[in-house]
Design goal:
The complex is a heterodimer of chains A (about 270) and B (about 270). With about 270 residues, chain A is mainly α. Chain A has helices at about 1-15, 20-45, 55-70, 80-85, 90-95, 100-135, 145-175, 180-195, 205-210, 220-230, 235-265. With about 270 residues, chain B is mainly alpha-helical. Chain B starts with a helix and ends in a 7-residue tail after the last helix. The chains are: A mainly alpha (about 270), B mainly alpha (about 270).
Chain lengths: ~270, ~270
């Protein structure tokens, strides 16, 4: 276990170096969030909004929290990982006296958690403090209840575990398709729609929603966000959280099995 | 060889090189189609839930959506060369362009024509054709000409944005990501009618970047709907010219950037 923690920490320290990128990314995301909120605002002016399954304030928190934790989403490859598979460096992992899947998972965990922290803090400050100060109270992120905050933190932990398992799965897929083009183009489409980044899952047509909330993508954004805003109580969320943990176990098992097969047929070009 | 023919030939080379990897090209196009298609699925789901958007119907929004995506796909496919400028400056590669007896803008424009953007293009076209048919406004020659004029204006504007983004690299190679606010943010914004946004926001996308002039006002004339904000019909028809003016300004800025360029050496 100590070995995995060390791998994750080393990777996290490297990722935390890119602070200028984080600042630029924050500006882009804050602007993006405001566009989304204005569009939802216009939809909520319609007469049918009264029957909507979410209050507008809950949609606002959905947008801001989605932006704050954007970096946890498994919507791209671990570039470093992809390069190692292409160049053959991937064999070094096999030489180390720790499990290969564990090493990959630890790196993915760092990738999905460390960059999120440096983006989430300014986003919270922007959405909770700055927006009300400039007179945009309607767009501000509502503070959560203590229960909501605690449950959000738990669900966020589950989200990062799920995301790391999915990221590792994309990396494992590289052992079959070296360029990774397929994954980089299909993963974002799948992940953004099913996790609630395109529109909040409760606003989807009822039949679709009933299925999507039980898929492993709902745990990435939808579940934590709705716990934060109080749209879901802890009691309502418990079975959903349990389902997400089951998905996590399944995804890890799948990744492990595929990696095992990949390693058996792995041929590294010498040099 | 004149400039236009040279540009066509350069872009032809880029296309042929991409067609060497046909399977990869097809897969990327399909991927692109899926990503943009899913965005429209989101729009559809919101209309299914709320019925209308501030008095606008799904068919009307589909036309806005189609116009901006077709134009952005065209500009993005043709303007990819400008995307490489920052990297070339960093490596000192840009100097090679200065040695050749043609304008740098022309050479950069000819670097790449990205075929996979056909995914977004076809998706935008589908939205546009469906929207206009559902509105039943007819397909007379006047309307087709107006549509072509809108696409020329909007494509020029997005192309101009890419030129500006590349020009900034002459001053700084950092934080170019912020320009994505105007390009991708602009696309997201223009997918919906401008009247749904707050006034200060509309001003940014009218006077800083003439997005409202190329993607909102003329589309109103196209779908024969009076502007809820009160712009007269003649202004709606002239408005796409703002895109051409913006592109001309961007190219002037580019020439200024090239003049003050000093090589990083090798």
């Amino acid at each position: 276990m100590r070995g995995y923690v060390a791998i994750a920490q080393a990777r996290a320290r490297v990722l935390l170096q890119y602070r200028a990128a984080a600042v630029a990314g924050f500006g882009t995301q804050a602007f993006w969030g405001m566009i989304r909120i204005m569009i939802f605002e216009a939809f909520y002016r319609s007469a049918m909004a009264d029957g909507a399954p979410m209050r507008f304030e809950e949609v606002v928190s959905y947008v801001w929290l989605g932006q704050a934790t954007l970096m946890t989403l498994p919507w791209n490859l671990d570039r470093e990982m992809a390069d190692e598979v292409r160049t053959g460096k991937v064999v070094y992992g096999l030489l180390r006296p720790v499990d290969l899947y564990g090493q990959w998972f630890a790196r993915a965990f760092a990738l999905r958690s460390a960059p999120m922290v440096i983006r989430a803090l300014p986003m919270f400050a922007f959405a909770m403090v700055l927006l009300p100060l400039v007179g945009l109270e309607a767009w501000a992120l509502e503070a959560p209840t203590l229960e909501g905050l605690a449950m959000w933190l738990v669900a966020l932990g589950v989200a990062i575990l799920l995301s790391s398992a999915l990221t590792t799965l994309w990396s494992v897929a590289l052992m079959w398709t070296v360029s990774g083009d397929g994954v980089t183009h299909l993963a974002p489409a799948l992940v953004t729609l099913m996790s609630g980044m395109v529109i909040p899952l409760p606003l989807l047509p009822d039949g679709v929603r009933a299925v999507v909330v039980w898929l492993p993508f709902a745990g990435l954004v939808d579940l934590p966000v709705r716990l934060f805003s109080g749209h879901l109580t802890a009691a309502e969320a418990a079975p959903m959280l349990a389902a997400q943990l089951v998905w996590w176990v399944l995804l890890v098992a799948l990744g492990r099995a595929l990696l095992g097969r990949g390693v058996r047929r792995l041929v590294v070009q010498g040099g | 060889m004149n400039d236009a023919r040279l540009l066509v030939r350069l872009l032809g080379v880029s296309m042929r090189s991409q067609l060497q990897y046909r399977a990869s090209m097809v897969m990327q196009s399909v991927g692109h189609l899926l990503v943009t298609g899913i965005e429209f699925l989101g729009v559809w789901a919101l209309f299914a839930r709320f019925g209308q958007l501030d008095g606008w119907t799904l068919a009307e929004v589909a036309v806005f959506y189609g116009v901006v995506n077709v134009s952005f796909a065209l500009a993005d496919a043709g303007g990819r060369g400008f995307d490489q400028v920052a990297a070339r400056i960093k490596q000192g590669d840009f100097d090679r362009l200065l040695l050749r007896p043609r304008s740098t803008a022309l050479q950069v424009a000819g670097l790449e024509l990205t075929l996979k953007r056909i995914g977004r293009l076809s998706q935008g076209l589908a939205g546009l054709i469906w929207g206009l048919s559902a509105l039943g406004v007819g397909w007379g020659p006047g309307r087709v000409a107006l549509l072509a004029w809108i696409v020329v204006g909007a494509t020029s504007m997005f192309y101009g944005l890419m030129v500006v983004q590349a020009t900034i690299a002459f001053w700084t190679t950092e934080s170019l990501e912020l320009m994505n606010v105007l390009t991708y943010g602009g696309v997201e914004t223009a997918q919906y009618p401008m009247s749904v946004y707050r006034r200060w926001f509309r001003r940014v996308f009218t006077y800083v970047v003439p997005l409202a002039c190329v993607c909102y006002l003329p589309v109103l004339a196209l779908i024969e709907r009076p502007d809820p904000l009160g712009a007269p019909l003649w202004a709606q028809r002239v408005a796409p010219a703002a895109g051409l003016v913006f592109l001309a300004g961007a190219l002037a800025l580019w020439r200024g950037g090239v003049r003050r360029y000093t090589s990083t050496g090798s």
